User: Fold these one by one.
Assistant:
Number 1:
Amino acid sequence: MTSQEAAETRLREMLGSEVRVTLSDGRIVNGAFECIDQGMNAIVRDKKIGLVMVPGIHVAKFEVEAKDQGSKATAEAAPAETPAPAPVQQEE
Amino acid sequence: MDGGEGEGGEGERGRWQDATAEVGALCEALGLGGMVMREGFTLQESMNALELMSPKMDTGMNADAYEDLAHRLAKGKIRVPVESLEELDWVAAQVLIRELAWHDGHLLAASVYACAHLCPQTQSLLKPFVRDLFKRWQDQQPDTPAPASKSEKRSATANTAKDTSQPFALLEDDTDEVVLASVSFVLFTSIIKSCGVARLCIRRGDIYEEEDWSSQTFGLPLGENSDVPGTLEMINFAQDVLRAAQASGRKAFAGKCERIAQHLLFRALYLQALHEMLRPNIEGWSTAEKLWAQMAELVPVVGPASVSDIEPQERWKAAFDADIHRKLLASAPPRAGPTCETAPAQLAFANFIADMQTACALRNTDTLFAMYNALMRFSRRTPSIVVRSLVMLMLYCENELAMGRIAYEGWIMDDLQAYGVPVHLRETEECRNYAKFAVKHMYDVLRMLLANRARQRRNIANLLPDWAAMQQEAELYDHMAFVKANPSLPRLEDMTREQLRENMHFYMGSWATEWTIRLMLHHLTLGFELDLYNINEYAAVFWYGQDLMARFLANRDETTKFNMELLNRLTRSAEDSSLPKKAQRSAAARCVGLRKLIGEQKTNIALVKERLCVEVERLCLDGLLRFVIGLAKAGRFPPPQLEFGSDKIRYNHRFTPYSYLAMPRFLPYESFAQVTNMENYETRQLLENAALFLEKARSLLASAMKAPNMTDVEKAYFKALFKVVISNNVNVTRALESVDKPLPEGARPHVEAQFPSAKDSCFFPVIVSKE
């Protein structure tokens, strides 16, 4: 796999997850990661504003959800396992 | 969006992991144009995204940190005037870098006027320093004789050979600050004026596209209607001030006076050269050529690299900011400012001067075909828009003359002669009328060559329907000219097919076909240069290209063959005593003309070289075609990713511009599919044939490179093509060795096209098969 392909694969893994982007003027954009290009120009679906594009030159910080927190959150959010249905009694 | 860093507590902070460095590195690895997006995320959706930190779209951005020029001057962040000649030297070089960036398409406000020293506010601060000194200097100037015209009233040429043994008693109790202010005011004014004249050249040439150059000035002054003689006078003044300061032994002027004088000299020469080149009928181009030669000597001295040993102070650097006119630029499309690196800028500067010299030399071109070739070579250097605009002015001077002296109609008639149209046909009014008809189309071809490389391809697609019309008109004129020149022959409609074939040739139609194929081949090869083709399209492109080249050669051969047969018939007629004396004499006269024409064609070096080039390139494409089909047959070619459409749709889309033409006739997809049907061939046979064709190309190139009369540019091109042919041959040999071996388990076939000879303007690919 070339380095370009590896980079594409890794970035695709991040797509859809929640990210927090701090801009150069201090504002923070929080939302789903939609798209990014070579110049680090990122499109994020902010919960309050909708789709925003952050120019790469104004990205002061790019944060992703920490994995263990994410998986813990997922575990807490996941519905409790439902018990297996009892086998249907064959009516004779 | 949150307004600041006031997010939640420890839990919230622990939720986030800083991935800035990782994401930055991954993005860089994506490569040019690389992008990843969530599945289902469309272009239409992305267009709705709000762009943050853009003054146009983001009303919430924190712009408090931004200071405009007035703020920076008030706070003393920018020092006006400059403090030393060393600072002035460094600033002048930085401005030159930005001037070249402006030529390259960056906004004026973000490039040249990114220098605070050029802005009207700072220039106005310098005026009080300059006023008195300039008046004193003017009063000391010797009286000049009455000028020939108003524009020469205060005419002054560059002070290259002024007597410096008696410096003017110019400086009285003027401080160093006054002297520095005067010199820097003049230098910056001359920079602004030269940008203004350059803008005038570009607008007059009128060939720029939006990606070439931005015409917007955002209200910043350029002084297009400037008084070039007046600016030259000011430069003389500044040079005299420098000499006076140096002669007076002032410490501040001990070191760098000569360098600043050279900056001033460069600006004077530059202004004069552009001014001369704008004169009507290229009257001033021979003067301009000498001026560019002088400037070429100054390139190492005033170029950006000349200040690389100077360590700039922070306050010097503070005077340069691409964002300095952010409020002005709020109305413009968002665009990053230029990256200003010294080494590329020095190269761009040297190339700019060299291109101007080449442009001046173009005016000596005599024939239409020579001009076409010269412009093709010139275009490959990707000259700046300023140079291209001036060449455009040269091609269409007043009275519709090229280079102020050659009528296009006459040029076309000469080209028809060189092609092989006999004199008895050229003398007809029909032939002359056709030449008149062809003027606009031929001018459009030359104009097309002055567009940037990408636009040339688009422009050719727009020209081809016009050349289809040229071919249709040619058929009519050929008929009429033939009838006029051969009144003794039966009417065309009474002639048999054999009689027609024997007696009539579509000379003008064939000439138009030859030029059409030239355009089509240029269109095709530009696709390689611009990397437009998907690897799966290469077979179609190679096939179409080699077919076009075959038809180019056949078209010319048919005319030559017809002329030879005509010569034989006329010779027999001239010796046939059964014919009336008048007919014999007429045949004899035509023989003389035709014999001379055929002789001239054989010794026409330009046409011979073109033929050789086309033959070699055709062999190369033939080899490459068989190579890619062989790889596909061997399972070494990845299948095309066709989410929408098919091979046929892609083929038709790619070659649509050629479908307007009758000659050469359009090659439909079905023909391509039939010829390249892999079932008709064996892999080994294909690869062996590929090697054969490439070897023929190699052999022809080897002898071509030794031929006399080859220019350095032509030799370099053949050498580059030789490299491509050898590399392809090696890859074919490797493919032959591994053709019978299956691909390793899990390996995917991968074929790519490389362009190792692109820097020598050879865009034929090297096909590389990998796993």
Number 2:
Amino acid sequence: MAVELDVFVGNTIIMSEEVYQLWLDGYTVNDAVKVRMEGGVLDEFDAKADVVLSDTMDQYRTFQMCERLLHSPTKLANQLLFQIPPHRQATLIERYYAFDDVFVREVLGKKLSKGTKKDLDDISAKTGVMLKSCRRQFDNFKRVFKVVEELKGPLVENIRQHFLLSDKLARDYAAIVFFANNRFETGKRKLQYLTFQDLAFCAGQLINNWTVGAVDNMVEDMDVDLDKEFLQELKELKVLITDKDLLDQHKSLVCTALRGKTKAFNEMEANFKNLSRGLVNIATKLTNTKDVRDFFIDLVEKFIEPCRSDHWTAADMKLYLTHYTNSAHILDTFKHQVVWDRYMGVIKSCIFKMYHD
Amino acid sequence: MPGKLKAKIVAGRHLPVMDRASDLTDAFVEVKFGNTTFKTDVYPKSLNPQWNSEWFKFEVDDEDLQDEPLQITVLDHDTYSANDAIGKVYIDIDPLLYSEAASVISGWFPIYDTIHGIRGEINVLVKVELFNDLNRFRQSSCGVKFFCTTSIPKGYRAAIVHGFVEELVVNEDPEYQWIDRIRTPRASNEARQRLIFLMSGELQRKIGLKVLEMGGNAVVGYLQCFDLEGESGLVVRAIGTACTLEKLSSGSGTHTHPNTAPASNACNSPSKDGKEPVFGEDLPSSSGPSTPFRALPTSSSSPPPFSPSKPCSRQSSSSDTDLSLTPKTGMGSGSMGKDAGPLKTLLRQQTQTALEQREFPFFTLTSFPSGFLLHVGGVVSARSVKLLDRIHNPDEPETRDAWWEEIRQEIKSHAKALGCHAVVGYSESTSICEEVCILSASGTAAILNPRYMREGCLDLGGSDQRFEDPSPSSCGFCHIPYDELNMPFPAQLTYCFHCRRQKVPDVLFTTIDLPSDAAIAGKGCFIQARLCRLKKKGQGEANATAISNQLPFMEYELHTQLMNKLKLRSMNALFGLSIQISVGENMLLGLASATGVYLTALPAPGGIQIAGKTPGDLNTEQHILNIQKRINDTIAKNKEFYEVNPPDLTEEVVGSPIPEPRLRSRLFRSHSESSDELSELDLSHGKKDAFVLEVDDTDAVEDIQSLLTDASPPKGFYSCNTETMPGIYNWTSALQMFTSVRVLRLSNANLSNQALNKVFTDLCENLLKSFYFKLRSMIPCCLSHLVFSVAVPEEDLIQVAVTAVAMTFDKDQTQDKPAEKPITKGCSEAEDQLQFSLELCTDSSSINSQSSSKNSAAKLNQNQLIVVRSAGVPESSHLSTRAASVDYGSFADRCSTWLELLRLKAHTIRRGSVKTSRRTQSLAHSVSSLEHSSPLTDGRSRSLRSSRSFGGSSVSVVKMTPLSFLPGTRIVKYVGIINMFFIRETTSLREEGGVSGFLHSFVAEVFAMVRAHVAALGGNAVVSYSMKDCVLMENPNKNQCQCLINVSGDAVIYIRETDQEVTGSTANIRLSCTSSADGAT
């Protein structure tokens, strides 16, 4: 007695968020049925396994048919095939484009290419995210990347408009696109402690302050590429470490301001030149694409790690960087205040975010 | 040149990529009507072309306008090779041809390809200019409105109900033409789709002509079906009820202004007599008054047909089962045209003169304005097995016509035998397997109020009826129309429990909806009888004979099952009964669906008693006791679940809600010696009686099994197959229409009948369970209008397709008083008007007939399922042995209850004010529900804002329901009938997700196309939606599958009951209904 065919179609789409999530997570129909039954569908309702199976199959088919539309979410609103209430549309899209932080952490900064796609089974094994789900997430990244690549205007806004995502999710995607475009290295061991949210925050800072879009908001790739002129100008900051007087002057200003305000004062004083050299060197090297990629690893190696080994607290860090930045303004021979601010503003907030265990 | 059709192609969107190299498409459009074709320019390299074409003008006859669809083909231009078709859109122009409906068709239509499904959308504008007075062109029937709805459409009143119209057209099926061997599947499918479009247009036009000839202007309850007869052709046939409809002024349409009723009542005055000569005279000669009863008078002397104790009569019935090869002589001889008693004759004289002039006094309507239906006799049905042969001359489909003619004659004579002059809730269907075809027709024999037959204003006339008729409308229809002393079959009669004046049967089976003013107790319940019978494979005549021999037995079995299940739920009446018998190569499937209800006018049903044939065996007795206990428990449980607590039961039958076994009279199955006891009045048996099921009988074991395996719906769920759920009145607005199809493959070839039955029963039960599960988020909820259709597409395959609607209701149903019903049921126009036009309209003729009926206390009412050609079928026997069951002891009691009833009635009528207050309450309720949903929608609209700015306006919501109304709303306009036929085929079945995936997307596509057409007509809902056909043919080995779906319905514009203005609030409606109509999770 084999059921040869079994369909159930409603005039308004029939879906359960639970089943949708199972589908998104890459469960097979049978596994999804198991999960649902264990989850107590049976208890709340007198349902046999075959009823749950039939329901799950129907929904899976519906989702599969919707998937094509979800690839360009704007179509979902004016397609005629399914009658989907607006709030359902929003849910469908938002959930489809949602991703697992553990997964995205693995591919962040990698080239969104076929090569990376081949590695997905390794990533799946490592993160515990099912391969099917990995593929969906990876394809989403790629799709968003491809669409916004050629668009003018602000990155986040473009993503939000084309994919009808919430602001939060659009920002996350902007970060992913930004990382992928600039190929930031994030996979190194030393960077493992950073979560996706840490890095997404940093990406947001970079996008808002260091890209072309920060000065001109009507060019292509404005939010994706770093502002070349700015990077050139950063070279001028070198004077802060190459000019001995300036360095000493800077140090004394900072130390005066810090004295007595922190327990780590001695370490700060001792390490000032090292740390300053580290930060300024990062700035001056950013014209090299290779060094741009190493931006985060450099930040960690040259600044965060030394501070951490000296047991600075987060408050110490804040205090130090604030004074370090502000003191530079008092240096009379230092002429590059604007560039310095643009640089340090981002560095400061990135380090604040990244300075944790 | 009476018409100019204008079409404009605006734009396309979401087109498929036709050029792989550029990932784009160079699309253009061909617009074709009749033999004229126009083309748009090619819009190069775009998936969202903006053609913005000129207006293409077609100058055509209105006959063509009715027959032909507008064909729009989207193609991809190719410089070097042939242009590739992307897909097509067929637009039915008919809705533009009558003034009240849509004036323009404008909107996005899915571009449909029979191989690829929906491929993008196209925006089209269509207009029609009609020049001449249409009525002078007799070949066309522009202006006749068609409604699928099987009641008088909301906002209209029926000035005259003319009666039955039918027509059929035949053609060769393109799929079976020689050319099909050399053309592509796509071309073949398109040829078929086009042909069926044409045929249904032609059919509608021809029916329209008949309506015009009768003097009507509309067809209500229009039912169109396709018979795919394979080699022998393609038949499109339709039946309907011709009416003269008048639009109610918008004021009187609203329930809130009942004062306008007297005004419209004026229409009823004799000045309207211009419309008088309705019957006979106007009819074409074939159905003229001279020939209506060709065969019947001769049969009037034939012996009473139901003589169950004589097995020999079975012979006569089988000889009666004619094949097309053996032309039938003496039509209707199998049934009885017994002359009614003189009293009866007198009583019905008036009506008969009106009705009997017609060839077929049939009505496809299932619900009527109160007062229209006087008495209901019972279900009448007729079936006939035919052998198909090739239709030689499509222009004269005489054979098919003759077949249906026979069946209808038979129905008519059955009705006559029940003392009824009309058949209501009438429908016809076929089941075809290879060359064998079963034609079926069924309906409910009834006596109608004669007033309506002449000049009856359906919605008004009932008023005086209420006062004149001795039987209150809440029970009047139950009173038997038959002469008590002259019953056509044995049955048990009692005095009506409501009025105590007239006789009622113990059970009542009908094919109509529960009359809105019927007095019931508790809630209704979906009842289904299922039966599967193996049959030997056969050929030709032998096969047909074998089938027709089986039919009566199947009907009997189904009937018994229904009866048992009804008893198990302690109910006493079935509404909406539909019995479907499907034929396959090696089996016959029978499925009877109905909605059970407890009519308080009828006696309380007895229980079911289990008896062993061989007493003494301890084991057996123990077993029997167990079963008996389970059955009693189930009955008790069901009573509680369906809240069946009839008021009079508790008042009068103190202390014995479930009868003691010894009080039960016996009912024997098939071989009963029933008739002896027929006239015996055994008072000692009290009013209760029970079925006795003897467990030694294997059939009985089966029955018991199937009785007990039927699970009642889970808490919070109710279900029914009628328009409204008896006992539930406070619907909320959320609804979810759905279609579900399941096909089961019988893996085990050598199944016994019994095992097969089990499989089939489980299939249906599991489907229901599955619905409950899927829709559980809508609790409390009712599945209404559950329509099951079964088929045997191939050997070993059973297909069940279901369409229904789930509707939520308000759990806190404080009181369900009859007076409140009309408000929520949306059919209150008539009610309101009734109450205010009481004194104004008195028609002497009606008084006449009514007073005579008052005098005839002996007037009876009878129900019985009459089976075709089954004069001797045991069927009729099972009601027989019961004794009359009225307790005569308490006459005084009865009088007092009757007085109470009268008082109650008066109270009801005085309730005007109460009603309005209730009304405001419901308004308040809907308002709050609106408010409820608004915060949500706000949130959503924010998230969607960007999409609107981006992809143009979003799609408007189109609700769909198989019912004729949408709860919480008011239908303000019918914009046209939807009647669509689609074929979908695939040669990559696996890639599309197997049969399920294929059908799932096809059904979704069909919904989408229906919605798009409705929206383009300006409508926002489809009512009376139904899926007539779903024919699936698969060949998994070849990776192929083909499916045909035929759907129909009425496109309407509705507004929320709370909104007095149509404008301004539509946006609200849309948003809030989306949020509420959201499906299950």
Number 3:
Amino acid sequence: MLWRVFHRHASTATASRPTNFTFPQRINRSPTALLESLNACVQADGGSPGYIYVDDPFLIPTSAHEKRQLALSKSSGKKAAQWIMNRYSYAFFHDVAAPSIPSYFPNYTFDEKEFIEPDETTLYKLMNWNKIIKAHEIYKKCLEQNTAVSDPCKYALFDLLCIYNSDNPMEILPPEEDWYRRELNESNQSGLAQRTWKENGLAEQMFEELKLSATPEQKTRLYNSFACGLFKYHHAEKAMLVIDEMKQNSIQLDLTTYNYLLYSASLIRETYEIRWKFTIEYLNEMKQNLIKPNLRTFNAILHTLRRCSLFERGPTLALSVLNEMRQNGIEPSLGTWAHVIMIFYPNDHIGYETQILPQIMDELEKQYELNGKNFEWRDIDDREFFFNAMFKASVNCRDIELAKRIHRFQMNGSNSRFIPDGFREQMYYTNLFRLLFRFDIPEHVMPLWESVVPNIYSPSINIIEDLMEFISTWNLKDNYVRLWSDLLLLGFIDNRQNNRRIIERYLKLLIRSDQDSLPIEQIKQYANIGRQILKKFPLVPEEDEQRQQQPEELQKEGNEAQQRAKQFRQSQPKFQYTGHILSDLIYLLTRADDFEASWSLYEHYLGNKSTLINPLHESSLMSLLSLSIKQNHVDQALSIIETINELNYECLSNALDLLNRHDNLDIKDRQRLRAIQKNSSLESAHLVKLV
Amino acid sequence: MSLLYLRLQLTLPSHHLLFVRTFRQPQRSTEPKSQIGEFRLLQLTKSKTNRNGSMKKRIRPKFKEVPPPRYLRMSTDQDWTNVWPTATTFKQSVVPLPITQGYVASDKENKGLPLEKYANAELMKIPNFFHLTPNHIKKHCAAIKKYCTPWPEQLDSDEACEYYLPIQITTHDYLNSTPSIRDSRARVVKFNFKLTQLQFDEHARDKFIRLAGQRYNADTDELTLVADKCPYRKQNYDYAQYLLTALYFESWKIENWEVDKTKNDWQAYYWDKSPSRARLLDILKASEQNPSSVDSNSVLDHNKKLVERYRASITRVQDEGAENELKNLNDYKNDVLSLYNLKL
């Protein structure tokens, strides 16, 4: 009506224009499509911490332990808030959000009054609030009271009972906790198919009950749901009985049931050939019943093939399955490729010749470009891809280029979300760096290492040891100091037993590099590292000092809290210095002409000689001696020579010679020197002529 | 020593008080304290003389090793769009630029020196545009280009736009970081179009403008309708459409009272309806040889040029104000003289 009002021929200037004008068609998009595509153009940046952490140097967690602690505390806080909200639900009624967000509100608490005269709405409400068992109870009550319950409601309840194994569904973990689920939930770690189906549970009861009154269409739904539930909780034998019953009563299986059936084929049939025959049989049946397979069907077949490890026909069959997929117009998902990889590389030695992994990567990269640089979750098995691919690339192929290619692909866009949990990520990076440290050159490895550590990946102790090995083999002197700060940040310098090994190895590195002449700056830096170690792990623990100073009376009256703290302290392992570490530290400090510090270390050694493991080294004693002579500490020098004598080191002759040449010796000192020489059991020592 | 001394001086009322908490945690104990008669003494805070025992040493918090700021480890050829993908508060540890804001005001310190980014709260308060560098924009445009359609070829100039898309409808969407996505301002709908886009006769146009009142802008010949009375945008949109339609068709109607319009009600001088024309006709007819045989049109046709000029000048004299009065009157005089062939 309105548009007829406007006339387009009024103005003479535009009279010549053609009248038809077509608006361009709006390209349809979801409400969040723009945000999603903007998100996809951000690449992972190894420099920034994960989104759940605060981006501030003081608050960024670096070690795996800290990350875990922070993430779990965060999720714990959320849970606590949820708990308070559910506990005091009457206080949380103020709704500022529009549209309202139900998950920000307390759960609905059912009143017993509602159950006095239940009806269908009560049942639906219970089901919506995930109270499946209660819903079944109320359903029974309805039957007793002769309240009419409609068939759709009954079947919805039955479906839920099958899906959740006659139990209330488990609560969904917050995402932070979900990342660590493998460490947190002890059950079913192995991933083996355990039978968890509840025998004679509510689902079975309801099945028997509904079976009697079902119409043919309802029967189809009833049997299919039941069979799916049985397969889902790995009760294959019973499921097969149900399927036989279905065949006898000529009830058709639906796609989901077929998928479960194919997925569980390895549980149903024993030998590989028979399993495959079984699969083919059911695929033919699907074809007869005109049921079109989907991605899940093919992934289920490949899963079954994968469970036939070392089956000679496995790879060829897998390829034919892939072909069949293409013919059906179904694009393989990451999960499909994950299965294919495992079929082609059934153990750690087979499969290198097939070169299937590089081909898969070619295929995937092509597909990624075609998909507009974005992969979607299409199947639950997609989560296994990166883990499997990296595992096989590093163990079977040992191909650094391939591993790096997989890693590059993983870092692209939001592909990293296909690594679903902390454990798989840890294994992924362990495999990657194991391989690279063994076969690659530092110019390639170190940038990759720095792009990932510590924000994306916090290495485990084994990988850190591999890194130190790598650095020492290639003698990367520039990385020594950097390595120290990394060790500190990644939490490897603390009281734990294993970490003493790390410190020992690190000091070995520093000492070893000392062989050639070093610039003074570096010597000073190394000495500083030594001092840091000493500061972090004092030779005499602080508490002991305090306790000695306090009067006894006061100590007695320590209250419970103090005692608990003391117990806690005692239960924690103390850092134990060994002769190796002490001598390395002495060596580092004497190189930087720090006599005070190194002498105190030496004194510590003398004081705890009986308890310390390993004596001091020759080289560190010698360098301490030369420093003390240089700085004119004659008494100390004599004491050092006595120690050298005690330890029977070959260098005694050199030591005697060194001190002998010193001018400031008085008669007493010379006598002591002679006494040492006389007591020495080394021949070479007697050759030195003392003045 | 002093603590021990104090303790010796004390007469301790009960055994419990031996282990009082330190004064750092003032807490009202629920146990009965010293009593006088049957009443307990009210002790809001612990009396100072009761302080004994060693003061609990405050545990020094253990700080973890703090990594150096991130910008030190950034390479010079990094992709900034990944480091700073979205709008966030300024972070000194991330921005690798020597940015300063403000200056030291204190005389005792370095007065007048600029403050660096570290611990500079001012930098956090102001909005920054690190997330909108040219590279960001390029990247974002490339990412959402797939949702854009090409510009229609027909719309090659402003006139063409006006021609094909005669009306402009303006609405606003508001985006805030609040729990609610609603904003009452979003309901307003604005219609905007040029009056030349509508078909009018003189009366209808005049009536339309009069009905529109202030909504019509005579300078640009534009009409603006704003609808905001209803709570929702759709309702306002419908209302504005209704308003426009009603206005248009109303302006074409001629009511009975409009016929009663006299010369005094004219908004402009219409010479064709004025007595001036009738008188001119009389004069012209009289000047013809055969006054009864000629009709008014042919008389006007005879002197077409002069009549037109006369008409224009008299309209000007009537319509225009005092601005060009002298000139207009002069023109009028000249035209009258030439029309009647008079000479002064």
